[in-house]
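hi! just following up on the protien thing from before. the input was this:
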Amino acid sequence: MPPAPDVHAVHHAVHHAVHHAVVRTAPADAPVVLLLHGFGADETSLAGVGTRLPDGLRVVVLRAPLTLAPGQHAWFPISTPGSPDPDAVAPGVAAAHAWVTEHVAPDVAVVPVGFSQGGLVASQLLRTRPERYAGAGLLGGFVLQGEAAGDATLRRTRPPVFSGRGTADTVIAAHAVERTDGWLPLHTTATVRSYPGLGHTVSATQARDLADWVRTVVAAVHA
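and the predicted 3d structure came back as:
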């Protein structure tokens, strides 16, 4: 993950459509895995994770709408670490929703997967429109504080969620990790993995576990 740029230099261009990079094409009715990068990265940063996902999927990486510096973008500014302002989070989530609405047919399954800050966005996609997403993946990510519009639905439906985190990851605030670990079993059917010695990054093992989870989620959609 690149060093965090000065958050005061963020350009609030959230009204602009997010850019995207296609990692793998597939037929129009194939499930879509939407990869969401972390703070200070761009749509190239998770391409390697995308190449490890199962065949037969359309894999797309979105570039977050806030520009920090050339090649460095964010879904929302960092205010209180681990507890961002929900009002500041909402526009980035809305931009990702808008991309899905524009580029994916309504009957095609979509699975958002995010790293770090992108993990929060992936979970918010699910929490705000649970009927649209087949699940969500969090890679060193966390969930937003408070109740979201779709949380009551999630408590009934318990969609699949993958959460993988390194034991040496000190970037995400401890209270956000605790919040996430408490939220997952109450709202989802969670697959939780811990990776000894891994810092704030995605390892080959974690990417493999994610791929196995995605394969299971897609198989359930088509069962």
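DSSP finds six helices and nine strands in the chain.
The first helix runs from residue 47 to 51.
cheers
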